[in-house]
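Budget justification aside, the reviewers requested a transparent look at the raw inputs and outputs of the sequence design task funded under Objective 1. We therefore reproduce one unedited record. The lines immediately below are the structure tokens for a 126-residue chain.
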């Protein structure tokens, strides 16, 4: 067997696994709806178990493994971020609020002037 044949066999099993995952998640939603009279704790536990099993099955697929690797790399990158201090966040928020207020006043004034000019040109005053 060559590499492309082996890859196709793996992808057909992956397709089957994704089908099982979809059925599990749909069953969790349907079960939560059907057993709406039962205890919310029991229903939530059932949904959590179904999602966990679906996640474990997804981890056995190529896309699931690559998604997990991406999440690990993203977590590593988030740790490298230099987050602003509380003071910097407050100052930046204040600047954004002031600029937003100024721009809204500018646009309101421009809208009023244009409304007045159109009224002059058309002869219709509101």
């Amino acid at each position: 067997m060559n590499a492309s044949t082996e890859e196709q066999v793996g992808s057909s099993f992956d397709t089957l696994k994704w089908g099982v995952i979809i059925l599990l998640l749909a069953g969790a939603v349907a079960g939560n709806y059907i057993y709406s009279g039962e205890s919310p704790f029991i229903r939530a536990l059932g949904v959590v178990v179904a999602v966990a099993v679906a996640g474990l099955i997804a981890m056995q697929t190529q896309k699931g493994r690559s998604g997990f690797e991406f999440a690990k790399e993203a977590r590593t990158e988030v740790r490298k971020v230099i987050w602003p201090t509380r003071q910097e966040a407050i100052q930046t928020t204040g600047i954004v609020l002031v600029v937003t207020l100024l721009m809204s006043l500018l646009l309101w004034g421009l809208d009023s002037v244009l409304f007045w000019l159109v009224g002059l040109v058309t002869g219709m005053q509101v």
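The radius of gyration is 28 Å. The chain has a mean pLDDT of 90. Computational costs for records of this kind are itemized in the attached budget.
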